[in-house]
């Protein structure tokens, strides 16, 4: 696999007759599959060498799935998985170039993955050579027996049985290797146990037949009894060691999961908080910028810490929050959002969010202090309140050419079967948007929104 | 809002600031109005319990997240100071908006909750309110209350503790919309004192109610 740079990696293919070895080999070498299969069959006739070779590849070569999963599981760079994960770039993008983190993610994703593979293949060579040598030896013995030594059939059949049992058990290993990566299901486990039992039975039967061929049944029984006793003793000795090994393995696995989590957190903090802190240090002189950066970062970090990915996707509250975030970013004005209840976004809710966004923009531009946004979704209506603490204005005195309030807020709400009221005093201005959820209203609104689309 | 707006300027309110960040404690100390005297500071649960017992302040400004104790942060301080809850009032401060943090500290006995980003004048006002026996609700806490108790008004058959009355709902809604107590009073044509009574009643319900919907709501958010 040292030449694997220019070739596809050697993995067992999905298009399989037995185990996909020939397909994988053909793909790796760039030869036609049919030729590889014929060659393998021919080699199998030549004293079983092909069978041994096939078995060796079967054991040593991972399937495409396995290989992909293993590569994904153990990323070379701890930063790589989190950075390449599809989460939105930090909101500092408004003031900072978003390019560096992206470039970093690309390089981190591509380069170390290769180096990792090389390292692993290097590590695995020792095992491969050892096993290959053993199998070659077995093949040599097989050929020698066929050519020179006269082997009685009574010995060959039990040997075949033993080999068959071993093969079945090895298939089991192949399965568990996959099962270790994928979540084990009960069915898989049951199949594995059945296979293990079948393999054991075959091996035991083969050994029994072989041994009993050379002596009487009584002797065989004695031998069986003593070997069981020996096996029991060995198991007794090895059990603690095996248990310890298993525990170490579990601990290591847990540690790796923790390390991955840590890496994800580190990557996130690096891309968001540290970048923002660096920006804040550079812009320490400009108070508005610092406040804006701090607000945006706070919002982003909060979202990351407390988000509930399954629950919040495509909800009305998310739309309102996104609109508030947008206003905060563009105008550098704090917008506090409180939501009670929630529902899935529809086309009409989109209009509500747009109207609310317009109201927030007005409040942030003209009002002073924090802008309060309150969304309440009940069984019959969705309501949004946008309040500021500005000097107030007279809604009726707004010039006709100013589209902000009249068109974007009131007009839009009316078109979608909702209402918008604006109350203003010297204490501040509040825009109340109400969108009923009833079916009649929504049908009327659907026709209205069609009309709007044509306009 | 100034002290005259709060209705009763109570001179010389003694407070203890509990927060694990010294920089925040000193900042808050500088921000508080001169009529509020900082009588002690603490940075961990153990320190806080000892300082509060020794100083017996009027109000404790309590950070929700604190090191030490049983890992419960501000709740552990409240549990440790349980005998003093009659005379000393607790106002929770937090950078976290997470419902579990806010509601659990309220249910442990805090009289109000404000975020750490509010201004010195606002926090001074909140301290005066809490010292006067009232509850302080931020818009977000009002939102949590509405979310937990539901937005439908009370049935008469229901347990009094388990639902908000129509008036309490109105008050909570207005607070969630960003209204100050004064603005709520103006909007509903009631006195500020009445608004405070309603808010205190809601606080009591939030602390004492074992309502099944509150429990379910809390379970959804992994509270309690």
Short description:
The complex is a heterodimer of chains A (455) and B (224). By secondary structure, chain A is an alpha+beta fold.
pLDDT averaged residue by residue of chain A: 72
- Tell me the span between the first and last alpha carbons of chain B: 35 Å
Low-confidence spans of chain A: 1-5, 73-123, 181-187, 441-455
What is the total number of structural domains of chain A?
3
Q: Helical residue percent of chain B?
A: 40-55%
* Structural class determined from secondary elements of chain A: alpha+beta
Proportion of beta-strand residues of chain A? 5-15%
Helix content of chain A: 55-70%
Q: In DSSP terms, counting alpha (H) and pi (I) runs of 4 or more, how many helices of chain A?
A: 15
Strand content of chain B: 5-15%
CATH architecture assignment name of the largest domain in chain B? 3-Layer(aba) Sandwich
Overall 3D form of chain B? globular
Radius of gyration of chain A: 35 Å
What's the layout of helices and strands?
The complex is a heterodimer of chains A (455) and B (224).
Chain A: H1 21-29, H2 33-45, H3 49-60, H4 64-73, H5 80-84, H6 99-147, H7 153-181, H8 186-213, H9 217-282, H10 287-306, H11 309-312, H12 316-331, E1 335-340, H13 347-366, E2 371-377, E3 381-387, H14 403-415, E4 419-425, E5 428-436, H15 439-454
Helix pairs in contact in A: 1-2, 2-3, 3-6, 7-8, 9-10, 10-12, 12-13, 13-14
Chain B: H1 3-6, E1 13-18, H2 22-31, E2 36-42, H3 45-55, E3 59-63, H4 74-80, E4 89-94, H5 99-107, E5 112-115, H6 120-131, E6 136-137, H7 139-149, H8 166-176, H9 181-188, H10 192-208, H11 212-220
Parallel strand pairs in B: 1-2, 1-3, 3-4, 4-5, 5-6
What does this structure look like?
The complex is a heterodimer of chains A (455) and B (224). Chain A contains 15 helices and five strands. Chain A is an alpha+beta fold and 455 residues long. A five-stranded mixed beta sheet of chain A has the order 1-2-3-5-4. The model of chain A is unreliable at 1-5, 73-123, 181-187 and 441-455 (pLDDT under 50). Chain B is α/β, with parallel strands linked by helices. Chain B has two domains: 1-133, 3-Layer(aba) Sandwich (Rossmann fold); 135-224, Orthogonal Bundle (Arc Repressor Mutant, subunit A). Chain B has helices at residues 3-6, 22-31, 45-55, 74-80, 99-107, 120-131, 139-149, 166-176, 181-188, 192-208, 212-220; strands spanning 13-18, 36-42, 59-63, 89-94, 112-115, 136-137. In chain B, helix 8 (166-176) packs across helix 10. The longest helix of chain B is centred in the C-terminal third of the chain and has 17 residues, at 192-208. The model of chain B is unreliable at 1-10 (pLDDT under 50). Classes of the chains: A alpha+beta (455), B alpha/beta (224). The A-B interface holds A 302, 305-306, 336, 338-341, 370-372, 374, 376, 378, 385, 387, 427, 430 and B 97-98, 139-140, 142-143, 146-147, 151-152, 173, 176-179, 183.
